[in-house]
Specification:
The protein has two helices and 20 strands. It is mostly beta strands and 317 residues long. It has a single domain, classed as Sandwich (Immunoglobulin-like), CATH 2.60.40. Strands 4, 6, 9, 11, 14, 15, 16 and 17 form an eight-stranded mixed beta sheet that branches. A six-stranded mixed beta sheet has the order 3-1-5-10-7-8. Strands 2-12-13 form a three-stranded antiparallel beta sheet, with no helix packed on it. A hairpin with a 3-residue loop joins strand 18 and strand 19. The chain is globular and about 55 Å long. The N terminus is likely disordered. GO terms for molecular function: metal ion binding; oxidoreductase activity.
């Protein structure tokens, strides 16, 4: 799987919910997973060196990480994200998510990393969590979302009203890991962008750009930022920058949108069963899953508009 690890995930199996009254409960929103799915993987450049990685990064509370590294980088759809918000100026090579002012959009996040916990936020925008690991939940408003390895989250993005086409806001993908001696120094971060446009279908960038960056977020002690899926009871001080104030909420703060059907609740008499994918690397540029060989495409499917033998969304194959 080294090719896939170095080039990013190539796609995602997304199953739409069977319930027909979702929008009655959650309100209207556009759901286009082929355009609003954020797939994140990590890579550790220190592994390419002969020197052994040292424990220079920790979680903000000082606890150890499951794997040690000197520094890591991110891949979004198999591409390098911007390392600074300013890289977006006149640059369309970085991933951009297009929205129209006043509309609501469903975003999906997949953490496909080896061992990195990510913190997701969008400057000047709230995230309304509506699903985690395939289970719909009642909307939960938050400023930041922590996504652990292997987790998936869905949120509604409410595009602001009266925003001119060309306005662009950074989407921040930050590591929860920080320098063991300085919580303001992140182990890594990357930026993709939320771009406002006047076209809901055509994926072209507006001609004029206005980058809007929020540098003063979470600096009000009396009104701290909200951070969901937090592994701490109290968020350690100075995460990502000095004088930041955040209030932690764990996943138990989320409430199911639909009660779990009684037939899905395990009973003591039920036999345990286990299903798994057995991944194995194979050459050239292929992989084995449960002994079946799959050839990987040359470019990520989500970045290729005309993939061979592709079932166009919505799928009806």
């Amino acid at each position: 799987m080294r090719y896939q690890r170095s080039k990013g995930l190539f796609g995602a199996l997304i199953v739409h919910e069977a319930q027909s009254d979702i929008r009655e409960k959650l309100g209207p929103f556009e759901d286009r997973p082929e355009r609003k799915t954020l797939i994140i993987v990590d890579q550790d450049p220190s592994k390419k060196k002969s020197r052994k990685a040292v424990q220079s990064f920790c979680l903000p509370d000082g606890s150890s990480l499951p794997m040690h590294f000197r520094r890591f980088t991110l891949l979004i759809y198999g591409k390098d994200p911007a390392t600074s918000p300013l890289e977006s100026a006149g640059n369309e090579s970085h991933t951009q998510f297009y929205v129209v002012s006043g509309r609501n959009y469903r975003f999906r996040i997949i953490d496909g990393a080896l061992g990195t916990i990510f913190v997701i936020s969008i400057d000047y925008h709230k995230l309304y969590i509506i699903a985690t690991d395939g289970s719909l939940v009642k909307p939960f408003e938050t400023d930041f979302l922590i996504v652990h390895v292997g987790e998936t989250y869905d949120f509604i993005l409410k595009a602001k009203k009266d925003i001119l086409p060309g306005s662009k806001y950074p989407i921040r993908i930050q590591s929860l890991a920080v320098n063991c001696k300085n919580n303001s120094e992140l182990a890594g971060q990357g930026f993709v962008f939320l771009a406002y446009t006047n076209q809901s279908i055509k994926m072209t960038s507006p001609t004029s750009e206005n980058l809007i960056v929020q540098n003063d977020r979470c600096n009000n002690k009396s009104k701290p930022c909200t951070i969901m899926n937090c592994p701490f009871k109290i968020m350690p001080k100075n995460y990502s920058k000095p004088d930041t104030y955040m209030k932690c909420y764990d996943i138990l703060s989320l409430k199911l949108l639909y009660p779990t059907p009684s037939f899905e609740i395990p009973k003591s008499a039920d036999f345990a069963s286990e299903f798994f994918f057995n991944f194995e690397g194979a050459k050239p540029r292929a992989s084995l899953i449960n002994g079946i060989r799959f050839r990987l495409p040359a470019v990520p499917i989500l970045e290729n508009e005309d993939a061979a033998n592709e079932c166009k969304y919505p799928v009806n194959c």
